[in-house]
Amino acid sequence: MPNLTSLVVPAWQVQGYLNECLDSILRQRSVEGVEVVAVDDASTDHTGEVIDERAAADPRIVAVHLDSNVGPGAARNAGLDRATGEYVWFVDGDDRIAPGALAAVEARLLEEKPDVLLIGVARERWNRKVSRAVTPKKARTGVDALTAAPPPLGGLVVRRQFLIDAGIRFETEWYEDLAFGYAVLAATDNVATLEPPCYIRRLDRAGSLRGRSKRHVEAVRQWDRSLSLSVVEQADPKTRRKVLNRAVGELLDIMENGSRLPAKARRAMFTEISQLLRKHETRTSPRPGGVGGLRLKLLASDSFSAYRLLRGGRDAVGGVAGKARGASGKARTTLRKANLLRYYKQQLRLPVDENLAVYGAYWFRGYACNPAAIYEKAKELAPQVRGVWVVKPGAREVPEGVPVVHPGTKEYYRTIARAKYMINNATFPPDVVKRPDQIQVQTHHGTPLKTMGLDQPRFPASLGNFNPERMRLNLAKWDFSITANRHTTLLWDRQFPIKGETLETGYPRNDRLALAGPADRAAARAELGLGEDEQVVLYAPTHREWHSVFTPPLDADELAEALGPNVRVLLRGHYFYDSIGFPPRHPRVLDVSSFPSVETLAIASDAMITDFSSVMFDYAVLDRPLVIFAPDWEVYKAVRGVSFDLEADHPGTFARTFDELVEAFRTGAIDDDAARQARGRFRERFCSLEDGHAAERVVRRVFLGEPLV
Question: What's the whole-model pTM score?
Fold first, then answer.
């Protein structure tokens, strides 16, 4: 039996969103069967791979790959040509449908049998807040449809044969959904409605196709097509005026939106809108009076300067108010801070030093992680670039010879103002200005198991000091974002979306682990005072938001006693607790929470126990026994949310109780065939890029400008 509904999913550079989109469709109940036509519009990221993997696992998905990038309109046409359902529903690859929506839509289709079903559409902003549902309480058709707001494309479910008979296709320019929606509603009066929001449209995401671009002028041509429809041409003068005024109003809003159209492109778009107005103003009722009529008069005469003067009064008032608020804020600062900020502003006016790089790690806690590995490799491959570290006074020891500046000093402000390169595994303070000539590299500091970034508001108990506005400002500054594997790339494309470039290189800090040999193990043990014959177990639990102090779920003293006299336990507390561990009493437990290098600890150990810490992904590079001890797995999933099922896809051994943990060590199950196979699958998924050359790949791309290969 043929499917009732085909959902056409055009996808271009949406690797981080596509699984969520497809899940929203395929996890729903269908009344008479559903088909998903996923069209890869020649994406250069992992989008095509995601489609193929999902199609191989689910026969309801039809994978279509285009040879070249043709844009969403042509991609939808390609999907439409492959669709077989009685109805088609166009769902963009970065949007999704609401739970229960498919059954509700199909029930209404079977009941009404319309040419077009209008459904409610909700809007999800960049911060994941869903609001402002567009509800089709009345079905407008014919010319009446053009006097209302353009219908969101996701809010249209259309009978496929109707589209074929009417010859309606998508145009290839931007705003193709506008022309398509109006053409559909103008061609039929057989329209039904379904008011609840069934489609969730993601707006203003970083990296979206319709960001700031001069291509927004193409909206003029799409409105020209809509105004040229026969139902408009044959309408009475008053109705023609209403439709034309709506078109002009929509286009001027686009032109004046600085987040859409660059300032340099506004004059040209104004001229095109002027030409559109003159072309379609024949046989319309007279222009209105007042300011609205004057605006149309200036537009018709292509008087851009006069139009700007007319619009300028309101903007000037807003500018004065903004300056007043800024002056008030400065008045409240201390004299010392005001002097430092003045100095910082002076430095920002000086040229960027092309051979200066500034580094930071863990909110300036010390010299560590990916930035440290990049710093060392840059000294070798780009010796002309001088590196300076920002480190808080009293932080962990910095290696001898590494230049340091302290936050809040003149040296600090001079460095961050003048450095060409800014490398950090966390964030620079929000008041740090990102100059156009500067390059900011976000290295991150772990492969994510837990939900992070802009997905985190879905788990309110984990938010704490989470500030989405500040995060968005930070994201706008990142030119490069480093990921360790495809899993991370797909997640962070949605959780930390940037307009810059993702470097899927592996983690620079793991180069040391990938290259470690017997001599490195011996040196690490000697540094820690460990015997060669000891079995060393590293225990590194993660932070838990619901604990205000370091409270490991495993008693390290009890563990050492249970594992026997030849076992030494290294206890590594999370850095959120200022490197303070849980003071051990057992002689074979060593608190290494303040030890500067977790890589040294990993190399020195024979096995590791952790829970939800990202250190598991790093330790897996060593291909040694890895044990997950997670008595509170359900709690963690509920509070933080997770990106995959760690219990099912663990890296060797998964234990929930102390007795299970000890038994796994005593029987050798931590490294038996089953554990090694699980570890192998885990390494293939998360460690395939860890070959000892990640830092080199980053330095060559960022400092030397070489392509990533």
Answer: 0.84
